[in-house]
Amino acid sequence: MDMSVLTDRNAAFTSSRFKKFLRNYNVKHLLTTAHHPQTNGKVERVNRSLVTRLKCKVNSTSTKVPWTKLLESVTNEYNLTPHSITKYPPAYLLLGTLPYDSPIGQNSYYEPVNEARNLAFQRTINYHNKNKIRYDARFVDKKFNPGDLVVYEEFHYPNARKLSPLFSGPYEIIKQCSEVTYEINKPNPLTKQATQIVHISKLRCFHSPDKLKLSHEE
After folding, report:
1. Is residue 76 part of a domain?
2. Which domain holds residue 20?
3. Could you tell me which of 216, 165, 217, 171 has the C-alpha nearest to residue 198?
């Protein structure tokens, strides 16, 4: 069976050591597009839940406990808490049991694990379909061709200057890599490559200032 793993572009995942590890186990490595966490949305959503719990625990004690010492308990709490969409704890769906004794019997709480997994899967699909309807209602379809000029929406870190430009460019579309990704001639300072593969949501059509007219100039 073919195996693949999807990661972001952190140095830990793009290192030669990690690539060699994946090759040894015949695992295909897929990378998210830069500054587009939605590509790996499920992982990012879990991380956000864990960070929220960590904030509560770190700030709930007078003696500041390092978050690294709280991570295990926070993760256990997450795994044992029924999910708002599936209605089951992640630990139950994964293991088929919970690591504690229920006072009235575990089966009184949840269906048999195979049935629970099917229900959780269907509930997840239904939830995603509802989100898709809401997203499609405000989605504006756009498509670029090789040679088109675009501007790129920059990612600004919290400590970035307030007056930093929102977009950079213009850049030229080199090619379309997939339905939602394009290669543009924007240099990558980390990899030293002359181009980058970016998500379509980060691109806007470039309009030359020479061709723009203000309302009073018409």
Report:
1. yes
2. 4-138
3. 171
Give the 3-state secondary structure of residue 34.
Answer: coil
Residue where one domain finishes, among candidates 96, 120, 138 = 138
CB 113 within 8 A of CB 138: no
Under the banding of pLDDT at 50, 70 and 90, the label for residue 104 is very low
Query: Tokens in use for 49?
Result: 């839940």
* Model confidence pLDDT, tens digit, residues 72-101: 989 988 998 889 999 999 989 998 887 665
What's the CATH number where 180 sits? 2.30.30
Please indicate, yes or no, whether residues 127 and 172 belong to a single structural domain of this protein. no
Over pLDDT 90: what percentage of the chain?
28
The CA distances from residue 101 to 97, 105, 107, in Å, are 10, 7, 11
* Residues 131 and 154 occupy one common structural domain: no
Residue whose C-alpha is closest to residue 198's, from 163, 162, 168, 160: 168
